Amino acid sequence: MEIYFLQKDKLINLLEILEKTGKVFWAREKELSSNRGVVRTISIEELNEDYIQDYQIPGLRAHDIFKPFLLPLRSKVCEYPDNEWADIKDATERTVLFGLKSCDLNAIGILDKIFLEDTEFIDPFYKRKRKSLVIVSSDCISAGESCFCNLLENTPYATSGFDINIAEVSDGYLLEAGTEAGEKILSELQTREATRKAVKERDDRRKKVLNELKKQNARFEKAFSELSKRVSEGYNSIPGWALGSTCVSCGACTNVCPVCYCFTLFDRSFKRGDKSNRFMVWDSCQYKGFSQMAGGMNPRFSLMERFKNRYYHKFFRFRERYGLYKCTGCGRCIDNCLGNIDMREVLSGIKIGKDAN
Amino acid sequence: MDNIYYPREAVITDIKEETPTIKTFRFELNEPLAFKAGQFMQLTVPGIGEAPFTPSSHPGKVGEMEITILRAGRVTDVLHNEVKVGDKLGLRGPFGKGYPLDKFKDREVLIVGGGVGLAPLRSLIYALFDHIEDFSKVSICYGAKTPEDQCFTDEYNKWKGMPKTTLNLTIDKPHPDWKGTVGLIPCLLEEEKLDVDIKKSYAVSCGPEIMLKFVTFKLLEVGFKPEQIYLSMNRRMSCGLGKCGRCNIGPYYLCKDGPDMCYADIKDYPNVFG
Fold first, then answer.
1. For B8-95, which CATH class?
2. How many beta-carbon contacts under 8 Å exist across A and B?
3. Sequence-distant (≥ 6) Cβ neighbours of residue A146 within 8 angstroms
4. Do A287 and A164 share a structural domain?
5. How far is A154 from chain B (nearest CA, A)?
6. pLDDT tens digits, residue range A189-225?
7. Boundaries of domain holding A239
8. Closest chain B residue to A89 measured between Cα atoms?
9. To 10 degrees, the CA torsion angle through A178, A181, A187, A193?
10. Which of A7, A34, A329, B228 shows the smallest number of beta carbons within 10 Å?
11. Which of A264, A291, A317 sits opposite B235 (nearest CB)?
């Protein structure tokens, strides 16, 4: 597809067109005051006209995740008896997500594999939400400390999975459509074809960020070249998982993960004998009750078994089933861990073969 | 399209007390529902929640279904204490693959049940009895804590009366009313007591996981190969579709690939027996 050039001060025009397309949620860098002083954060929130003039696309992935647009924290799946779809089958309005990074797109790709492309079961709720999305992504302009997408053979810029991708260059943006819907939106915008020079600048910037990532993650490369083997063969290695000993089973890692999708079904009625609602709610494999059965038996009773299970699911079980790792390398689990656990360090620490015990 | 999460209404037509802690609930189904022995259902108690159970009734009966339930937790407490004949509950399913009856053809089938674990096996027993000419032998071994804790006692004579079928019972500890074998279930599987041609057999077991563990070890000890052992791993399951994430052993989801797993497939993965 063609690459277009948009002047820096014309980004607002793109946002205005997107607002006509659907409800826009953007990633926006902002300052929050806390008892530790001012914290800079990248949030995902509904587009706010007050900020549209000065809006800048964040250079890094947001601290929030886009997952709730596809898998809400709690969503009603039915009402019973006698009301199979309740009010939930109606078409949702179009939602525009703006400012996703390559890792966010990969996350959606992984969720699609599970809920949309698994021939045995396509989730109607996911499908409905997924079809309503318009996705506008943007290149990363630096490497975050906890970022490791390169180790999972991903890049800090997107090459597919978007409707529109935006790359910042010195005096403007390069826009690329990935779908017909994206192409249609761009056609409404005053752009010109990007010069070869501008495209080269974009590619140089991309290379620079990728090199930054490669440099900061160089020492983990070996571990990531054999992840599946490490996690399965090293599962029972006791010293290998020592870095997990500060885990407190809080579940933050799964809750901030853009691809952790485990859930439970949960029923409620206002009064016994009334209609009941059934909800799908997020669950976490780190919680003790996750696999616990009535009567108390629990196949993953110990914290360490649950800790290991998360890695096992991401890097072994999921790959056996779907052919790829269930991780995008976004690093949010590292940023949010109460026990300061770094997934890269854990995976590098797993011992296999002679060193295992 | 049907909503996979929506429970179909099922009316309770009979509740039978099997033991002080186990009851069999009979459901009348609005629409015929065919299941294979070993497949499980999600039973909804309105407003309380769902729990997975494998039916204990004849898989060929499509208009009604029996589910035998041990009182053990939140949902089963309500089932035992509050639910009456005529109440409307909900069912989803069937889920899972069920027992591989095709493989059992022309083989001996050794059925090993413990406690309420005989419930799914009863459904298998009926399925085997339907085509008893296809199987060389059906040996049923069943263990319960006390004679009081045995399920389906009124059917034992009928089972024993079937051609090519034997039934061996044991209870955990000596009891004044009990004249039969005493000891945990593996004691029925001692080589000298086991009248099966191991090379031509399949063993199927269901019960608490600790029992499955020792039954498996005993079966291996007397000469069964892992490929010949099927275990009903009925763990906690929520969605029934291999999505919600909690019931895995290795790469398998018990709800989708099981719940009856061949031991050879799972033996090398972590947390096989909890």
1. mainly beta
2. 125
3. A331, A332, A334, A335, A342
4. no
5. 24
6. 988 999 999 999 999 999 999 999 999 999 999 999 9
7. 222-356
8. B3
9. 0
10. A34
11. A291
ipTM of model: 0.90
Nearest to B73 among A268, A274, A294 (CB): A294
Arithmetic mean of pLDDT, B86-115: 95
- Please answer yes or no on whether A297 and B245 come within 8 Å at the CB atom: no
Model pLDDT for residues B49-65, shown as the tens digit of each residue: 999 999 999 998 889 99
What pLDDT is attached to residue A34?
84
- The set of residues, in sequence order, having a beta carbon less than 8 Å from that of B255 and lying 6+ positions away, is B40, B52, B95, B96, B237, B239, B240, B241, B242, B247
Q: In chain B, which residues touch A (CB < 8 A)?
A: 1-7, 9, 44, 46-51, 70, 72-76, 88, 90, 208-209, 235-236, 238-239, 241-248, 250-251, 256, 270-271, 274
What local confidence, expressed as pLDDT, does residue A1 receive? 66
The alpha-carbon gap from B77 to the nearest alpha carbon of chain A, in Å, equals 10
Q: List C-alpha distances in Å: B140 to B40, B64, B74, B115, B143.
A: 21, 25, 32, 13, 10
Tell me if the pTM is above 0.90: yes
Q: Work out the average pLDDT over A259-271.
A: 91
Residue A310 has pLDDT above 70, yes or no: yes
Single out the residue in A216, A235, A258 at which a domain terminates.
A216
In terms of residues, how long is chain A? 357
> Is pLDDT at A117 greater than 90 in this prediction?
yes
Of A262, A272, A312, the CB nearest to B246: A262
Contact B244 A295 (CB under 8 A): no
Give the pLDDT confidence of B28-44 residue by residue, as tens digits. 998 899 999 999 999 99
Q: Given this model, what pLDDT does residue A13 score?
A: 94
Task: Tell me the C-alpha distance between B216 and B204, whole Å.
Answer: 10
Is B89:B83 a contact under the CB 8 Å cutoff?
yes
Residue B66 structure tokens:
């029996």
Q: How many domains does chain A have?
A: 2
Same structural domain, A161 and A249: no
Locate CATH 3.40.50.80 in chain B: 101-232
Nearest CA in chain B to A85: B3
Task: Looking at the structure, give the CATH architecture of the domain made up of residues B101-232.
Answer: 3-Layer(aba) Sandwich (3.40)
